[in-house]
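Reopening this ticket.

The earlier resolution said the output was attached, but the attachment link was broken on my side. Pasting everything inline this time so it's all in one place.
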Amino acid sequence: MIFWIRSAMRWMAVLAWVALAPVAFADEANFDSDWVFAKGDIAGAETVAGAVADWQKVDLPHDWAISGTFDRNALSTGSGGWLPTGVVWYRKSFTLPAADRGKRVFVEFGGIMDRGGVWINGHHVGHRPNGYSTVRYDVTDHLKWDGPNVIAVRADTSFQPASRWYAGGGIYRSVRLITTGQVHVDTWGTYVTTPQVSAERATVRVESSVRNQTRHDARARIEVTFTGPDGKTVGTATSEAAVVPAGRVQKLVAQAAIERPKLWDVGKGNLYAASVRVIGDGGAALDSDRVSFGVRDIAFRADTGFWINGRNVKLKGTAIHADGGAFGMAVPRDFYERRLRGLQALGVNAIRTAHHPFSREFMDLCDRLGMLVMDEAFDMWTVAKNPYDYHLFFGDWSSLDAREFARRDRNHPSVVIWSVGNEIHDTPYPLVAKANLARLKKIFNEEDPSRPVTMALFRPNVTGDYRNGLADMLDVVGQNYRENELTQAHKDKPTRKIIGTENTKGRGNWLAVRDFAPYSGMFLWTGADYLGEADRAGWPNISNPSGIVDRTDVVKSIGWERASWWSETPMVRIGRRTGAFVDTSGLPTTVAIATPQPKDAGVRNDWTPASLAPRVEKVELVTNAAAAELFLNGKSLGRKPANADAGAIAWDVPFAPGELRAVAYDAAGKAVARDALRTAGAPAAVRLVAEQTTLAPGFDRIGFVRVEVVDAKGVPVPGAAVPLTVRVSGAGTLAAFDNGDPADTTPFASATRKAWNGRALAMVRATGTSGTITVEVTGEGLRPARVTLRATAP
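Inline output:
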């Protein structure tokens, strides 16, 4: 009886709050500041009183492991970059404004690595074993309105080895506090599609799932206002009113037309917004929601591959892991943006999120930059790749993880295809694999019927995926590597839509895709070097060097080669061949490799060989122009046409110190691109190049200062490995210091590290909104250098 009295009193209080509350609009507030953090499994850390421990003040996002020491005996092994793992706790005290009494309150975690548990005022409100999942917990019933509240989070990466790459640790993505009405749009409940698109008009359909968390049925409709990329209103729509039963969810649909829409396209991040209001009887506003979307039309076709807005486009993609090099998994937005823009400059138009959901911030960037995305859910299903990874939880959690992932990302125009798995090792057991694939595909098709589903098949001819029907369960058949096998699978059954989900970097691999119209495109392994997955090379290698750019986003020669095939901007680069092309990214992990492989084209972009004695150097030019000419110390060595097979244009050049210069020409003979290399002398000085002049404070804002070791004439010295020390003074601080070396175990927070290939990258943060930030770098025997940035308001 007491229980029922208390329950009735609680519901009466809720109804009273609803009656007394002002107009309720969903509000999303940043919840990242003023946390405390401690290592160890601390008894009582979840309670309101807490526990005695070495609590440290931190702001989120926070990857505690990246600040640890690289240790060859680490339980994470080379898979996790030899970095520390274990149990950690976070706590935060907060109060809520009286004006929010009567609303629903949610806490949304972008990602907790790993096995995250959450408590509010000592009450356990949720647990999610998948560290990549964005989760939202309703904490309303456990809150205090007359005093402080305490949230506690436990994160556990102690079970090792787990991930096959560096996964970080702690609350490594942003946290948000969300307030809504009692009748409100459900979590990620608004879904916007553009079922009909033309240059003259686009039909926009808005579906909002409205949840009623009162004890009485409510009648509601949605009113939607559309704004264009310029922020101006371009249309409105209203749904029919419907009853939302108590405790249930009801979908409400509104539709409108946008005249002469600005299309979202490759490299064109034209974004619209749909502002949704939930309106009750009598016109009262009960809640609101706002999502961005793009107006675009996409299709995958069996005969001609991928289409967007009526154009046939090859997906020129790279897979990347989510880490931000020196920042670990707590990645500032500016780091991601610099990386994505750099890849776009090489001609990359698509990203595969390998092999899990990335952050909301990353997806927003892809939307804004016009980058196509293959959005991937899982690296494994029920069969393990490492002993303590997600396969332990797949059976219990994958449906929820997949559904919430699809709902979270389905409004992003950048997402053009879903992937439900990477090299899934369940496929030798077709009954298991087919059942799991059918279940996952059904979820994605239900939550987002506007996009197809694929997966990265692993040796499908070995496991019989093309014969037993598994491959044909996919909307688009994806396969890792072995491009000719996928081509044959299409020829065997021409109705198959096909895409290369992971590919090596050789010219033949690209030609197989370029010259076969049904091939939708390819995704290189990988776009950028990434932390972890260094077991093949062994200690002291901390990162995998398979990217077309390194950890600091310096373009490798193989990246310039790719640009000659993919970029639409005229380019030319000079390379000095030093060896054969080596790419081990497609080899099985059982293949032992004694030293880290460069996975490069066997070419160096310098004119400084180890010996300056007379010899013949094999020089190659990569260009997307019609022809190119090479000059040595001002003398032409001849003009040659581009090769039809996309191969480099080659010269045998008797070495002489000085300047090697290339000029590329279009079909009319006009010079359209240039490159030059000069022979370097001994290291003499440091040169700094600041990529911006002003810097605002905040987690996401990073100032990048390139550090180069140069000779007395200012020529970069490619082999310089001198220790460098960076000092930041004034209104700023050093955020991280890196050189891209896959075998450098210096902590990223250290102010001193060696140059690698004559380079390093200093990354700084502003600590104020005015004044100057001075960055100075010194090196033994080198003339120091300094640059100044101006701190500014956000």
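Reporter confirms the inline version is readable. Confidence is low (pLDDT under 50) at residues 1-24, 586-598. The first helix runs from residue 2 to 20.
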